[in-house]
Design goal:
The chain is an alpha/beta fold. The chain is built from eleven helices and ten strands. It has two domains: 118 residues, Nucleotidyltransferase, domain 5 (2-Layer Sandwich), CATH 3.30.420; 177 residues, ATPase, nucleotide binding domain (Nucleotidyltransferase, domain 5). Helix content is 49%, strand content 24%. The strands form two sheets. A five-stranded mixed β-sheet has the order 3-2-1-4-5, sandwiched between helices. A five-stranded mixed β-sheet has the order 8-7-6-9-10, sandwiched between helices.
Length: 317
Amino acid sequence: MNRRSIELLAVDGGGTKTLAVLVDSDGTVIGKGHAGASNYHVTGADGAKKALVEAVLAAVKDAGIEANKAVNIEKAVFALAGIDTGNDEKEVKLIVQRAVEALSIEIGSLHVENDCLSALLGATQNKAGILLIAGTGSIVFAHDGNNRIVRSGGWGHRVGDEGSGYWIGKQAISSVLKMMDGRGEETLLSKLILEKFNFNKIEDLYNWTYSDSYSVDDVGALAAVVGEAFQLGDTVSKRILDAAVEELLLLIETAIEKAEIQQDEFDVIIQGGVFHHNYYIKNQVCQRIQESTAKVKVRTTTEEPICNIIKRGLVLK
């Protein structure tokens, strides 16, 4: 059977969606495929495997490769959320291996990494730097330009992800319930969140949070509602956004100290939906970093993380 050879398969998998791309030797994307979440903490192992298979198959189809044609991939980088401990790394590698076995592909060199780490190394080309991703979740990785890599945050929606879209949304829901109790001040969030979910009363919001319909993605989407209420002058929403700024700055400052790059010149790259959709948080974080760190250059980008994962993959052996 004739095999189709492709330079690189790059996969960016998170708690909301998964993107797989096929890339030729000059970095040109020749096929893209999308699927749902592949963070096994969110979907479970079987759900993560299913999403990875679905995304890769869609990329193969988009590249115009027949379904029954065997594919040879020189290198593959699976940059996935949820790799936060040694046990996570083992679990995710097993999930990826099962996904690869379910596909008609041969991979010469397979790399499985935390999504933020992979994007950082691709963006900085192994120079000193920091990448903060604040989307549904939040995490920071820092690299000292040599061999030292450290992380801060990224402990998931149940016990971490401070400053993320989910964290902001959760604070918004809590504020509405406190308002209902009389423990918190009046907030426009009550009206806007009920409208967002098409609920009639606050009790409906409470019931939803403990129902099977509750999802991390839906709560994360409330970050945009908090931004809207802030623009309308809501003081509760401003406090939530200010608290998110402090949490994100703490992630960055901790990573700088752990990597011991306080005196170095380096880039801080900020990325993710929180920055794309909330200019107040973006501006505050950028301004405060530049004020506190002398030689830092803050880079904001609308580039998708997959672009840096591709850069990372192309230079791997």
